[in-house]
Specification:
8 helices; 5-stranded parallel sheet
Length: 185
């Protein structure tokens, strides 16, 4: 049986952001169970224009949609900017509105920021609108992230470390549950 594939998307485009480090930590920690691809193409997506979405031929948009479609699950890890999600992430999600690539797909949402509450709510609302499958066990708000995450993306305190382990266990279980292989077994 092949390993499940998860696409991880950071809402921060800073190279060494806390969000990027968290995704890298998840990728290395769970590499024996799942295959994680960290998508770093948000800046290559053009500004969303509904006129360009009709019979879309933009290669980067098509590739982005295909990556999501072929993934067994998606992890979003993002900061909060101006009490919402970063514009670059919002733009990417707008390119998914006319598709069903997130419909019933298992999703994990990690908002890691100074505060993050409004961004966390915004992202959940958007992903719910796009049909993503998540619940309180696959969402995580990390306020004060700079004091909680080290250079390797590891949490310095037990509460967040345990919550992340629980989130990943739940996400992997939801992939197992929704997988055609598990249903036919």
């Amino acid at each position: 049986m092949s390993r499940f594939k998860i696409l991880a998307i950071s809402g921060s485009i800073r190279h060494h952001s806390s969000n990027q480090r968290i995704l890298e930590y998840i990728s290395s920690t769970y590499s024996d169970q799942i295959e994680i691809e960290i998508y770093n193409g948000l800046t290559r997506l053009p500004y969303f224009n509904p006129d360009d979405d009709i019979d879309c031929k933009i290669e980067e948009v098509i590739a982005f949609r295909n990556k999501i479609s072929s993934a067994d699950a998606v992890i979003f890890c993002t900061p909060e900017y101006v009490f919402s999600i970063p514009g670059v992430l919002k733009n990417a999600l707008e390119w998914l509105v006319s598709t069903t690539v997130l419909l019933d797909k298992p999703i994990a949402i990690i908002t890691a920021s100074s505060l993050g509450e409004n961004g966390h709510e915004s992202l959940q609302l958007i992903l719910k609108t796009l049909g993503g499958a998540f619940n309180e066990n696959t969402t995580m708000l990390v306020s004060g992230v700079r004091s909680k995450v080290n250079e390797l993306g590891e949490f310095n305190e037990d509460v967040s470390r345990i919550k992340l382990q629980s989130l990943m266990t739940t996400l992997i279980s939801s992939i197992n549950f929704s997988s055609p292989e598990s249903i036919s077994s």
